[in-house]
């Protein structure tokens, strides 16, 4: 009798909480009741109660995914993304920690088999989540790195940092190149240190919303 291989699921997402700041200058989510349990008691039979919650938030909240529509008016929106570009993707984790500069250049990806893979760049920046440090001096990918990834035919790119681009550069070259190549981007990931260098299967599926370019995901990996 054969024994099935053990597997482990790793949560790669931050928790969305009332009042938290994901991106400086973007409103925090407001999480409240639409129908409280107390109110529902007047609607249902005795002993029966329900809660219906309400959340008011911008798309760029928590761990979120960008589709091409986020950058390009004629790009694929969330509803147009194929599940094959978001789920059950073989991942490659690229080490971005311990570098002397904030910029992660093309050389970080030398010699890696990237075609069709979800490339996850581990910077360790998620350790600063919910602190002032998170918003300043974050690691980012360069234009050359983005061009290499697009040219290699990657399926997906994720980072555990504040932004995949240098926020001081208003041209946003990494977003422009990757989303222009129909490669989804996931920002504000966490726990990438729990993944092996290769072989984990990634899932990062947003709600299927028409005419929307970004939405939070419950990103996770199967080891």
Mean pLDDT: 96
SS class: mainly beta
Shape: globular
Distance between the termini: 23 Å
* Strand/helix succession: EEHEEEEEEHEHEEEE
Please give the count of helices.
3
Helix percentage = under 10%
Tell me the quaternary state.
Answer: single chain
Q: Which strand order does the major sheet show?
A: 1-13-11-5-7-9-10-4-12
Percentage of residues in strands: 15-25%
Number of strands: 13
State the major sheet: 9 strands, mixed
Unreliable spans are none
Our Rg estimate from Cα atoms comes to 19 Å
Describe this structure in words.
It is a single chain. This protein is mainly beta and 223 residues long. Helices cover 10% and strands 23% of the residues. A 9-stranded mixed beta sheet has the order 1-13-11-5-7-9-10-4-12, covered by helices on one side. It has a two-stranded antiparallel sheet with strand order 2-3. Helix 2 packs parallel to helix 3.
């Amino acid at each position: 009798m054969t024994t099935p291989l053990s597997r482990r699921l790793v949560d790669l997402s931050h928790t969305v909480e009332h009042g938290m700041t994901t991106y400086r200058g973007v409103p925090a989510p407001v999480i409240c009741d639409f129908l409280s349990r107390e109110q529902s008691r007047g609607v249902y039979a005795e002993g029966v109660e329900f809660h219906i919650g309400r959340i008011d938030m911008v798309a760029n909240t928590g761990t979120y995914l960008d589709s091409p529509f986020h950058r390009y008016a004629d790009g694929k929106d969330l509803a147009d993304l194929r599940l094959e570009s978001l789920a059950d993707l073989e991942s490659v984790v690229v080490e971005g920690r311990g570098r002397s500069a904030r910029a992660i250049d093309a050389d970080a990806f030398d010699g890696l088999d990237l075609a069709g893979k979800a490339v996850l760049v581990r910077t360790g920046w998620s350790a600063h989540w919910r602190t002032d440090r998170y918003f300043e001096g974050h690691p980012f990918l360069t234009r050359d790195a983005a061009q290499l990834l697009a040219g290699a035919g990657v399926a997906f790119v994720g980072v555990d940092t504040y932004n995949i681009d240098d926020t001081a550069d208003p041209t946003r070259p990494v977003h422009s190149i990757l989303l222009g190549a129909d490669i989804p981007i996931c920002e504000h990931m966490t726990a990438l240190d729990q993944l092996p260098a290769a072989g984990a299967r990634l899932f990062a599926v947003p709600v299927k919303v028409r005419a929307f370019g970004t939405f939070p995901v419950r990103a996770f990996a199967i080891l």
